[in-house]
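subagent[fold] <- orchestrator: predict structure for attached chain, return tokens only, no commentary.
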Amino acid sequence: MSVEIRPLAKSDEAEWRRLWTGYLSFYETTVPEEVYRTTFERLTSGNDHEYRGFIAELDGKPVGLTHYLFHRHCWSIENVCYLQDLFADPEVRGKGIGRALIEAVHAQATKAGAHSVYWTTNQNNATARQLYDRIAKVTPFIKYVKTV
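subagent[fold] -> orchestrator:
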């Protein structure tokens, strides 16, 4: 099997929607249609300060995605890279899709001069955490959110 990681393209919208819906379902959430449209538009805009995305293909079939963003950080001059969403179809998990997507984001971060890539996951996401624990360092920080 051949895994290819490539930038998200406008022509990927249907498969991106399928994959992102799978990701949202995994986290037991949904978003309105307007969020789908706006997010995809942002991901494919090419604007420097917008999210970007990668699609993973296995033997030519889209099977995974990731979204990431470069942003400033008050503790360094260089930008950092936030990997927000990472998803692989359940039937291809364990085949290196997640690792390949993370490595593609890491390569882009290196190329852009960012000093680190970071992400969060649910503490109960044991399958993903097995991968994350092998390739990155878990931090002691806890995320808080106050909705507006």
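orchestrator: received. Logging for downstream: The first strand starts at residue 3 and ends at 7. DSSP finds four helices and five strands in the chain.
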